[in-house]
Amino acid sequence: MASEPRASSHSDRKRTIPPYMKAISGSLGGTVEACCLQPIDVIKTRLQLDKSGAYKGIAHCGATIANAEGVRALWKGLTPFATHLTLKYTLRMGSNAMFQSAFREPETGSLTNTARFLSGFGAGALEGLVIVTPFEVVKIRLQQQRGLSPELLKYKGPIHCARTIVREEGLRGLWAGAAPTVMRNGPNQAAMFTAKNAFDELLWKTREGDGNVLRPWQSMMSGFLAGTIGPVCTGPFDVVKTRLMAQSRHGGELKYKGMVHAFQTIFKEEGLLALWKGLLPRLMRIPPGQAIMWAVADQVTGLYEREFLQITPL
């Protein structure tokens, strides 16, 4: 009898979905998410950069942008945003699967909650440094521009924006705000992966490798709930990240000297609540975004389980 659990564990390890398949599922989910939720991201960025109180809230901000700049302005920065999300989710899902493989118990193949949390943190920190920072610098610079007339805009598009930043500020300019980005993304993804697994088991009594593929609405519910935790905890890092990325090194002295100085300056000039500016639109974007991404990713990995691993429901 003692040998039975070992045989079962070996079977579970064989059923593990490979990292490259997780990466593919994440890239497809990220593409769909970007197209659906770009307007909310534009509103979030404008609210975070609003120091004079020009916008009275989410609805007023969206209406003001549409009226003054046209509806298309709500999709400003879509190209870098969609590319960024696709690459980010590819790296996030793939690296998380690789970290989980490294953290699995060698004898049983099981994964503890601590290991799952650390895997998510590693994936979030990696994506934050490699993918998120340079793409968000370009996206935020494009989004903070007002108007649609090309001759009035400093940056004509994502490639021109990146080239201008490198020419005027050096390559380091594309990594402005890297520290708060890593500090935001690491805990975000640690919480998200841990919570998603917990909600899947709690609500639907399922786990990876058991052959039970969640229906899209079930994946959306688990993903939505998991996506609410990180933004609340890491809101200040998101505000500081946005401020550091938005400021230009060209033609003047930088207002914020770094992450700690930015925290101190924002708190001194605008108060404690300013560190959570844009939280509501983040909550309007990230949980629905996670819902969309997981609905797509779970179906892709579920198809792989059925067609290639030939796993039947337990």
Shape: globular
Give the proportion of residues in helices.
over 70%
Unreliable runs, pLDDT <50, ≥5 residues?
1-14
**Total count of helical runs of at least 4 residues:** 11
> What is the strand tally?
0
Q: What is the SS-derived class?
A: mainly alpha
Largest sheet: none
Element-level helix/strand string: HHHHHHHHHHH
Strand content: under 5%
| Mean pLDDT across residues | 87
Distance separating the two termini: 21 Å
**What would you report as the Rg, rounded to the nearest angstrom?**
21 Å
Can you characterise this structure?
This protein has about 325 residues and is mainly α. It is built from 11 helices and no strands. Helix 2 crosses helix 3 (about 60-70), helix 4 packs antiparallel against helix 5 (about 115-145) and helix 5 crosses helix 7 (about 180-205). The longest helix is centred in the first third of the chain and has 31 residues, at about 20-50.
Keywords:
314 residues; mainly alpha; 11 helices
Structure, briefly:
With 314 residues, the chain is mainly alpha-helical. 71% of the residues lie in helices and 0% in strands.
